[in-house]
Amino acid sequence: MSGMSAEERQRAIVKTARRTGAVDVNELAAELGVARETVRRDLRALEDHGLVRRTHGGAYPVESAGFETTLAFRATSHVPEKRRIAAAAAELVGDAETIFIDEGFTPQLIAESLPRDRPLTVVTASLATAGALAEADNKTVLLLGGRVRPGTLATVDHWTTKMLAGFVIDLAFIGANGISREHGLTTPDPAVSEVKSQAIRAARRTVFAGVHTKFGAVSFCRFAEISALEAIVTSTFLPTSEAHRYSMQGPQVIRV
Predict the structure, then answer these.
(1) Contact yes or no for 61/52 (Cβ under 8 A)
(2) Cβ neighbours of residue 209 under 8 Å, at least 6 residues apart?
């Protein structure tokens, strides 16, 4: 293995990260037969190219035009953090009567945390969310039509955006693959990006909810600026100083 070029090594590292969800410096060094410092150098190079994000002792893959995690995978990572965030986000419903819920696992958890004591109309592109809410009391569910993307099980394309364009929605709960102060909210797929930006245009208020690992990550398609958000809901794993920098651009930042 140690006869590999830096480029081959880095390709192998990205492949492993994407397959398993994270890589560890010590394990990679042993696997590739190179020094830990070499692996760290590889991870720095990959981070510069936007392919991974480094963590203490390792790295995890960044979602990009060429790689996106599935809903099934998302349902297994950072789950306690996502549940806390979802519960806090659901508290922002206020007097909203119509709500858009984005595709993704955290938005699905928000749907399950919505107030049960009053009628709400929920608009969503997510088959999982529509299914979870269809049986709920007091909920009217509008599922946006369109092409269903495998992996995330959500609808996209012009049918979806055209239907959304006909609504005025009180509150949109939006997810993203990356959120950064420079590039705003991003996602790998242009078709998904269109649906998200149309939902934000249709909504009076927009709330982003997501785990700390999304912050500073940048994907391929930008669909909103930070200033478009009323609130950002994340966990205390996002440092206070970072939270403050985001709030300078307009939204209230809630850490739970």
Answers:
(1) yes
(2) 85, 86, 88, 89, 106, 107, 110, 173, 174, 175, 232, 233, 234
pLDDT per position as a tens digit, 208-227: 999 998 999 888 899 999 99
CB 155 within 8 A of CB 146: yes
CB 138 within 8 A of CB 116: yes
The answer to whether 168 and 121 have CB atoms below 8 angstroms apart is no
pLDDT exceeding 90 applies to what percent of the chain?
A: 75
Alpha helices in the chain (DSSP H): 6-20, 25-32, 36-48, 71-74, 79-90, 105-113, 127-134, 158-165, 190-202, 240-247
- Residues 105 and 113: their CA atoms lie apart, in Å, by 13
Residue closest to 217 by CA, chosen among 67, 51, 85, 65: 51
**Confidence category of residue 65, pLDDT binned at 50, 70, 90:** low
Considering only CA atoms, which of 169, 134, 174, 131 is closest in space to residue 153? 131
Strand 184-187 and strand 221-224: the pairing is: antiparallel
56-65, 183-192, 210-219: range with lowest mean pLDDT: 56-65
Quote the pLDDT of residue 153: 93
Phi, psi of 197 (to 5 degrees): -70, -35
Q: Which tokens in the block code for residue 150?
A: 């495998």
CA dihedral 140, 234, 200, 63 (to 10 degrees): -110
The identity of residue 148, as a single letter, is V
